Every structure is written in structure tokens, then in C-alpha cells.
Amino acid sequence: MSSSWRNWSGLESASGLQPVSPADAAEVADVVTRARAAGRTVKAAGTGHSFTGIAAPQHVHLLPDRMRGIVAVDRDAMTVTALAGTQLKVFNAELEQLGLSLHNMGDIAEQTLAGAVSTGTHGTGGRAAGLAAQVVGFELVTGAGEVLRASTAENADLLDLGRVGLGALGVLTTLTFAVEPLFLLRAEEQPMSWDDAMAAFDDLTAAHDHVDMYWFPHSDRMLTKRNTRVGTDLTAAEPLARWRAWLDDDLLSNTVFGAQTALLNRVPRAIPAANRFASRLLGPRTYTDVAHRVFTTDRRVVFREMEYAVPRAAGLDALRECRTAFERSGLAVSFPVEIRVAPADDVAMSTSFGRDSFYLAFHTHRGADHSAYFALMEAIMRDHDGRPHWGKLHHLEAGDLADRYPRFGEFTALRDRLDPDRVLTNPYLDRVLGA
């Protein structure tokens, strides 16, 4: 086992670690208890798909490799329990074999369940956009080494406050999700002009279950993706032909796009023309497949990302301000801006807590300097009472975040109770929650 760690984007790393692969909650509790006695910290870092240092270990690094897979299925309650180190892509495939599905999910499935839930990973649209809003129970090991189970019937306050726990309340060992019968989604992808997409946005989000849009900087073009539920009759599936999926999603979206953006880092003056050309090549496509194959995509081009959730009512105005500021800045950016929406939820530390939300995600290639671009966009997001994604780059601190989350004080009080000695902390958590 390696004594070093590095996240996917390459922005966070650590060395001189003590790697441990626990198999269950009892082993996790033993590790935490020993670390607490020695004055050391413990972090569970899985695939490293967070761009921030939220999971960065400093001393003891808990690895997920022995805590994977589904452990319980309750078809009466329609819930499934899995070990917290299970990757989303594995969980989705195992659910499919059971004829079950999550209601909604994000577009990347590399993360562990613990990491995705703890950082507030979300999709777009639907009754529940965030993974955490689909969590009905979990088990964790506190910073004091105590194993706690949370559900509506047991430690309900922990379930209430801890579904997006940031890794600050305990080490998750199992998660229980509300599921539903496996269903199909019809995906309709269509390029549109900026003006047409902006004018149609509200109607599209009202008419379809899930809507995702991508604006290409330096251009007047957007790609829209509308996903509509079409039932549970799997014989009605009409997936993309293998050759089309390979061409669009493997060759063009990964291999060609990766090579193009890496090259453009060397000649940034060519980015505007390249973006306008690429956006004009986009064509429509429609297909129907099981939900997780429509929701998620394979992303092999390494990038950096910042994402904020602003109130839904302010979203289109915020997007227009971002475009205006960007075009005045003289910056060159080769990656599109992703636009999504989410319904309000009751998850205390969710970016959609208590309000319908409009998400704006800004990306750059890993080889490009993201700092000026993200700072420009972040100022606009803050002006609109934006809440940053916990696993994506931002500069907010505890004081800023306390103003944005009505239950922030309750959450930090629970942290004080469950991890009084800060066994589970690291510099990122000290910044966003207070030391």
C-alpha cells in the first residue's frame, strides 16, 4: 500500500501517510481510537475525485478497497444498503442486476458512495437531485471511535444533519438509499443558439425530468440535453449504436477533446476560434437507455472545476452576468460551462437546502491556469448568494458559509460532539467549518 496520496485533478497530495484498509466498522473504530490516543488524524479518501482538499489525509489514510458492495436489499421498504467504499459505477451496475435504480445522480460515477454523498454530489432536475436526499440511513464511526447508526428511528438528529457530512462527523461505513424500479430515460441532445436556449430554458425544465446545458465560451452556442422518464419496460430501450457511442463519447469527447485542449494550452489565442468551430460541429442525437447509462458519462480528460448553486430565480441573470464579465476579461477558456437546476431539499449542508437552485459549473483543462477565470466567476456567484460545491474549488471560509446555511451552527455543534478532538479534520475542513 502506498504511503502517498494524490487526488484526480492533481491539485492535492500528501505523503508519509499510514495506509490502512479496514473491512468493517469495528476495524475503522479501532483505527480511529488508536489515532486519537496518539494525537493523529484519520481521513477516508477514496478515488480522489474532489477538487478540494476535503478528503486529503494527513496521517492515517483509510482506503476503501475492502468496504465495497451491496450488503442488504429491502424490497418492501425499497431500500438498498451498501458499504461506503463502493464506487457509484459499481453500485449502479449492481442495482441494475437487481432491477433497481437511484432516482437521480450526477454525471460522473467514479466516486465512492461515501465521497459522493459527503460532498453533496448532485444531478439535475427530478424530485431529488442530490444523492444525499436519497439517503435514508447510514452507519459511521465518530471521531471518538463510537459506531453510530442513523435513521428516522435511531439517532434521527444525526440523519437530519449528517447526510452531507463533509467527512467531519465520522467515517461512513454503510449507506442506505431509497431506490425505485429500474427505469428508462429518453435522452434528447440538441445544439441551440444562446438566445434560443436562454428563452426556452424555463419551458424545457418544466417539460422534462432532467435538463442539462453547456455553453461554449467565445461562442454563441449551447448544447442542451433533455432526459425524460419513459417507464420501466426495458424492452423499449433504444441505446446508441456501439459505433456511435464510441465515436461521440470515446473518440470525440475524450481522445480528441483531450488532445485538442492540451494543445490549446500552448496556443491560447487559438481557443476562441476552436470553440466556435467545435460548437458548430455538434449535432442532435436521441437514444433511450436505463437511467444510469444516460445520467453518467466517462470523463477521462483531467480538468479543474468550480461550481456554485445560486437561487433558481437568479440563475439566468447570473449566467448572463458571467458571460458579460468573461467576454470583457480577455481570458481564453477551452471548456464549456455546465448549467443545471435542482429542487429544494431538506439536507442541512446541501447546496439546495431550503431553496430551488441553479448550478453553474466552470471548468479548465488541468494544464491551464484556472485562477483568474474562477476568481472572476466566483465574485458573481457570491453576489448572488451562491453556495459552493463542497468538493469543488472555491475560496469561502466558515464565516461566509455560516451566512449561507441556516443550520450551519447546528452542524458545527454536532461536529463538536462527535469529533471533539478533531481526529477527522484537515486544513480544508478547518477553513470551511472553523478550527
From TrEMBL:
GO molecular function annotation: D-arabinono-1,4-lactone oxidase activity; FAD binding; L-gulono-1,4-lactone dehydrogenase activity
Keyword line: Oxidoreductase
Cited Pfam families: ALO, FAD_binding_4
Top-level taxon: Bacteria
Keyword check for Oxidoreductase: yes
Annotated FAD-binding PCMH-type domain residues: 12-182
GO cellular component terms, A-Z: membrane
Alphabetical list of NCBIfam families matching this protein: bact_FAD_ox (TIGR01679)
Name of the protein: FAD-linked oxidoreductase
Organism: Nocardioides aromaticivorans
Phylogenetic placement of the source organism: Bacteria, Bacillati, Actinomycetota, Actinomycetes, Propionibacteriales
